[in-house]
Amino acid sequence: MNNNTVMITECLNDFISENGITLSQSDAFELYTLYLLNKKTNLGAEDLLLAIVDGSSDGGIDTFLIIIDDTVINSDEELESITVKSGSTIKAVIGQSKFNSKFSEDVVNKFFISMDSVWNLESDYDKLISLFNEQLVERILWFREVWKKAVIKGAQIDIQFYYGCVSNEIHESDTFKEKKEKVILQAKSKVHNANVSFDLYSAEELLSLHSEKTEVHLELKFKEQPSTIDYKGSNIGYIGVVKLPDYYDFITDDNGVIRESIFEENVRHYQGDVDVNKKINESLNSDFETDFWWLNNGITIIAQEVRPLAKTLQVEGVQIVNGLQTSYTVGKNYNKDENDTRSVLVKIVKSSDKETIDKIISATNRQTPVNPALLRATDDTQRKLELFFDQKGYFYDRRKNFYKNQGKPISKIFAIQSTAQAIHAILNRKPGEARAKPTTLIKTKESYESIFKPDLNFQAYLNCCLVVRNVETRLKNTAINKEERSLIRTFTYHTSRIFVSEALKKSHPTHIELSTLEIPSLTDEIFTSSVEFMKETIDEFKTVSGTTTSSSISKSGPFEELLTKKLIERYRSN
């Protein structure tokens, strides 16, 4: 092996070790490549894991990401709840990663063949499922729905293909280039006005991505020396105005790309071409007679460290917690002019205290209506759960990507939404709802409080997460055939519920009983038994209901009821 290949292999092995990954080297390379490509985005660890669709009948596609503006689509519910606007950007990221030492034309051939069915809207579910696995079909259908909405609204569509391997560098034969171009032209001919790219990543490019640093140290230059405001000796704030060209430089990288990672604490997604942003854009690029900050509420920033130097603040651990709409409008639409003397108002609070940060986020985002679910992270129960997980050696990602950015092991990070799904599936015995309605679980007060009960044993909550993660890991490593693996992956939450019942010999284990569950006691035998029980239940439901679509069954209330009935019968004596 040459130097680049040797080095990227060492980086991969370090990634596997640091993140507690139990996948094979080949499977881990898929995740590692996807991680590197999204290193500077606001995608969470679980977004990356869910995007992997490889396995049986994957059509040569390892990953399929769908992003609307800055929202990742991981469920039917998320797709239904999002609004596509004329100013929206729809992004489909479709990739293949091979732990091989050279690029293969076969990979590009498979892309071309598979994508013909993906782009063909006449290929319905039955046709697609005869070609691809359930996870890939689900994402194909999601993309088609988004595609239709984008065409109706005139939104932008970006299709990004990628192919990564551990070749020393990129070598493309003329034939390889022609086949790659065919994939691009095929997509352009099917998806009207789409921007299509096909990028290759050898060990050389992957090493460059590995070496890229996320934004840790940034400088913000003020128009005049910012005012310093001290409160009780330990909390320091700064306030002042920043010229628009300087603020643009602060929120974008050297290529003019918005630094998404510094917006992760913000509870609102960019709303695109809505009225408020149209007005911001109008004052930004048309009104040069009025200073911009007179017409705008300004920006609130939290930083862990702030070092003043004349008119400049050197900041670390930056999070823009209010002013996302203004910031994104500046980053996307501002025609930078160094002679532009207009300014934006900026407040910076130096704090690393989690409770103080929560209060700032909550307060600064209640000035206009916000979905209550987006502020759940500031609840007292959520803070206590974060502390409990930390004490047990795990990381509760109450604030998205907080622990990912600190380099904590991916295998030990759990998001609020996935935690709610695990609890609802196992403790509340609603695996179908957990799969079908991930965002609704924490949206309403009633639903939220039925899942996160402060008086229940927190170890039971952690164990729910660990059981689901255990099942997900086993689906990659256990020697079951690929067809069964795809099926059980669709029924991960149901299998997790059965897994717990099999281990505890209880159909309805209490939170106290669940808290005593020793994860190492979940043996291969118990898992195999759980999988067989799951398959039997699916087959019985198909016979009784006439429903054959696995995705629909996994979200079905009647199937949930049948599973409960069978578990009660199985453990009646207990």
Q: What does this molecule look like?
A:
The protein is α/β, with parallel strands linked by helices and about 575 residues long. It has 25 helices and 15 strands. Strand 7 and strand 8 form a beta hairpin.
Topology:
Elements: H1 3-18, H2 25-37, H3 45-51, E1 63-68, E2 71-72, H4 76-81, E3 89-97, H5 105-119, H6 125-129, H7 134-153, E4 156-164, H8 174-190, E5 195-201, H9 203-211, E6 217-221, E7 227-231, E8 235-243, H10 244-251, H11 275-285, E9 299-303, E10 305-309, E11 312-316, E12 319-322, H12 324-333, E13 343-350, H13 354-364, H14 380-391, E14 395-397, H15 402-405, E15 413-415, H16 416-426, H17 431-436, H18 445-451, H19 458-477, H20 482-490, H21 492-504, H22 511-515, H23 524-545, H24 550-554, H25 557-570
Parallel strand pairs: 3-4, 4-5, 9-13, 14-15
Antiparallel strand pairs: 1-2, 1-3, 6-11, 7-8, 8-13, 9-12, 10-11
Helix pairs in contact: 1-2, 1-9, 5-8, 11-12, 16-19, 16-21, 19-21, 21-23, 23-25
In short:
The protein has 25 helices and 15 strands.
Q: Please state the overall shape, judged from the principal axes of the Cα atoms.
A: globular
Strand order of the largest sheet: 2-1-3-4-5
End-to-end gap = 59 Å
Oligomer: single chain
Fraction of residues in β-strands: 5-15%
Biggest beta-sheet profile: 5 strands, mixed
Mean pLDDT metric? 89
Number of domains: 3
Query: Which value, in Å, is the CA radius of gyration?
Result: 25 Å
Structural class: alpha/beta
Number of strands: 15
Spans of at least 5 consecutive residues whose pLDDT stays below 50 are none
State the share of residues found in helices, binned by percent.
40-55%
Pfam family, one: AIPR
Organism: Fluviicola taffensis (strain DSM 16823 / NCIMB 13979 / RW262)
Protein name: Abortive phage infection protein
InterPro entries: AIPR_C
